[in-house]
TrEMBL record:
SUPFAM superfamilies: HAD-like. It comes from the Bacteria. GO terms for molecular function: hydrolase activity. The keyword Glycoprotein does not apply. This is Phosphatasebeta-phosphoglucomutase family hydrolase. Pfam families: Hydrolase (PF00702). The keyword Cell inner membrane does not apply. Keywords: Hydrolase.
Length: 205
């Protein structure tokens, strides 16, 4: 796994670039955590999802996380209902989301040079609204979401699908990811992985 500065990413031998969205292109994780808190509190499960656990599970589909929480805490939450409430709470916070400039500038520098896609554990509706809110909808050739594959991250399916759509060999793709599940997924897909730091850590990257 490579770990290099945001403006010095080597693309020699690379056929395509695949980006995660939340926590990689956009600083949306605080809004997602707040939305989780709202949704779980609404269904009587306040304070069961600690922030450090949330970040460790970043990139995974919401319903999968609810299943895990049910098993961990003996709950009977409806994954579909919690996911819907969490989505509503997140969309109410779209105005708080900002670009992670270092990553987006790298993407812009490669526009027209290499095909690029987003591979995200989010749903298509939420991701499309997120990209529209921050004005980067037109920067990527394809967007692959949790709706497009049978198994989400940390399985490699989303990254393999992105490579397929871009017409690239996964082993010759560069993947940018911030979360453990996403990094594992990209590695399993055979991609060269760059671990993106938290936004506040870029100054020391």
């Amino acid at each position: 796994m490579a770990k290099v500065g945001p403006l010095e990413l080597a693309v020699d031998g690379i056929e395509a670039i695949v980006f995660d969205c939340d926590g990689t292109l956009v600083n949306s994780m605080p809004a997602h955590f707040a939305a989780w808190c709202d949704a779980l509190a609404y269904y009587g499960a306040a304070n069961v999802f600690q922030e450090d656990v949330f970040y460790a599970m970043g990139g995974r589909p919401t319903k999968d996380i609810v299943v895990d929480l049910n098993g961990e805490y003996g709950l009977r939450l409806d994954p579909e209902a919690v996911a819907m409430k969490k989505r509503e709470a997140f969309l109410e916070r779209l105005a708080t989301i900002e670009l992670i400039d270092e990553v987006v500038e790298f993407a812009r520098s490669q526009r027209g040079k290499l095909p690029m896609a987003i591979a995200t554990g989010g749903t298509r509706m939420v991701i499309e609204k997120t990209l529209q809110a921050v004005g980067i909808s037109d920067l990527f050739d394809d967007v692959v979401t949790a709706d497009d594959v049978a198994v989400g991250k940390p399985a490699p399916d989303i990254f393999l699908k992105a490579a397929e759509l871009l017409g690239a060999d996964p082993r010759k793709c560069l993947a940018l990811e911030d979360a453990p599940a996403g990094i594992m997924a990209a590695q399993q897909a055979g991609m060269r992985v760059v671990a993106v730091p938290a936004p506040m850590d870029f100054a020391n990257y």
